[in-house]
Amino acid sequence: MTAGNERRVPRAAHKIARPPILKIYGLQCALVLLSSFILFPVDKVMAYSAVIGGMISVVPNAYFARQVFRYTGAAFAREVARSFYRGESGKFVTTVMLFAATFALVQPLQVFVLFLAYLIVMLLNAVILARYALRGNRI
């Protein structure tokens, strides 16, 4: 085997279990939509501000998770590092662009509700991932 083949086909690579990304971010989207349906009778602007804030949190985090878990194993260490950098920079740029587009295009908007939904979904993400890690990779 050549050096290039060894890199593509690792002999004994230890795999880190990939978290169920679709399940995690699907749950977050469902909770954001549920909160919006609850808020809709109270105030329509509040309801869509909550959806936008929640989605500004979910979409970049889902992109980051997708990038990070593209490669696994010691044989792909360089690709793993690149995917972390690509994921983090993409997450940052996407978050900034979504906030900028929201403030430029959505009127009226309840800014407090937007940021509150964003922060709650960020905390929800941390709680779900901590629960996933503590339960032995089961949600």
From TrEMBL:
Q: Where in the cell is it found?
A: Cell membrane
Question: What is the organism lineage in this UniProt record?
Answer: Bacteria, Pseudomonadati, Pseudomonadota, Gammaproteobacteria, Cellvibrionales
Keyword annotations from UniProtKB, A to Z? Cell membrane, Membrane, Transmembrane, Transmembrane helix
| Superkingdom to which the source organism belongs | Bacteria
> InterPro entries given for it?
ATP_synth_I
List all membrane-crossing ranges: 21-40, 46-64, 92-109, 115-134
Main localization of the protein described in the UniProt heading:
membrane
Q: Name the chain's protein.
A: ATP synthase subunit I
Tell me the membrane topology, using the record's own terms: Multi-pass membrane protein
